[in-house]
Design goal:
Layout (H helix, E strand, L loop, with lengths): L2 H6 L6 E3 L6 E5 L3 H13 L3 E5 L2 H11 L3 E5 L7 H10 L6 E5 L4 H9 L4 E4 L4 H14 L3 E3 L5 E4 L2 E4 L4 E4 L2 E3 L3 H11 L8 H8 L9 H15 L6 E4 L3 E4 L3
Parallel strand pairs: 2-3, 2-4, 4-5, 5-6
Antiparallel strand pairs: 1-7, 8-9, 9-10, 10-11, 12-13
Protein name: Response regulator transcription factor
Organism: Cryobacterium algoritolerans
GO molecular function: phosphorelay response regulator activity; transcription cis-regulatory region binding
């Protein structure tokens, strides 16, 4: 993850609690560099952040801090993230939990969600994806309100709602993954502007994908199948330069 991502990680409407106080997030991971980067990105959102490097420390902080959301690594040096979550739930807290883990098997995903987790992000990830997932969890928990009077972005008949994470074209809903959503949002915030693969990689993905521009091509193709299928194309390739979103 580049430090420049932290500048990009939060450009949607800010969320805060109904009483105006900041959203509180607890970040639990035993990699200090990662917790520092996440903390920076979340504080840029205007949220209050605490961190923990071990499971038992996380439980102590959670009981005192009363976070509105928890970002929780599964692999911790003392007790694992699943045990942390079970104890949080046993304490009576229904705090939304976003799991972070290097594991990517279906069994691990099922274990995390069965234990009471709300969402799951696999390392390596982009800071923007974590922020996007957290915003979605917090909004669905009805804890937060948005500063924005109109969170919608529209280009032609394509509309994206940054609060509800809903996308539609000509009134027809389009289901997108978190990464597809962030890619489309970047394109829609820059209509009629050519965006290079390097710019898209920096904005949507972590540095771990550095040089692998094929991931951009793959996700552009995914978006085209969902956004442009059977319609006038809006996502255009500018040969040798990048991609552009524009109406016909």
């Amino acid at each position: 993850m580049s430090t420049r991502e932290t500048d990009h990680a939060a450009r949607g409407p800010r969320l805060h609690k109904a009483d105006g106080s900041p959203i509180r997030v607890l970040v639990v991971d035993d990699e200090p560099t990662l917790t520092d980067l996440l903390s920076m990105a979340l504080r840029y959102e205007g949220w209050e952040v605490r961190t923990a490097g071990e499971g038992r420390q996380a439980l102590t902080i959670a009981r005192e801090f009363r976070p509105d959301a928890i970002v929780l690594d599964i692999m911790l040096p003392d007790i694992d993230g699943l045990q942390v979550l079970q104890r949080v739930r046993a304490d009576g807290y229904e705090t939304p939990v976003l799991f972070l883990t290097a594991k990517d098997s279906l069994d691990d995903r099922i274990a995390g969600l069965t234990a009471g987790g709300d969402d799951y992000v696999t390392k390596p990830f982009s800071l923007e994806e974590v922020v996007a997932r957290l915003r979605g969890l917090i909004r669905r928990s009805t804890l937060a309100v948005s500063d924005s009077t109109d969170p919608r972005i529209s280009v032609g008949d394509l509309t994206l709602d940054e609060d509800s994470y809903e996308v539609s074209r000509a009134g027809v809903p389009i289901e997108l993954t978190a990464t597809e959503f962030e890619l489309l949002r970047f394109l829609m915030r820059n209509p009629r502007r050519v965006l290079s693969k390097a710019q898209i990689l920096d904005r949507v993905w972590s540095y771990d994908f550095g040089g692998k521009s094929s991931v951009v091509e793959i996700y552009i193709s995914y978006l085209r199948k969902k956004v442009d299928a059977g319609r006038e194309p809006m996502i255009h390739t500018v040969r040798g330069a990048g991609y552009m979103l524009k109406t016909a």
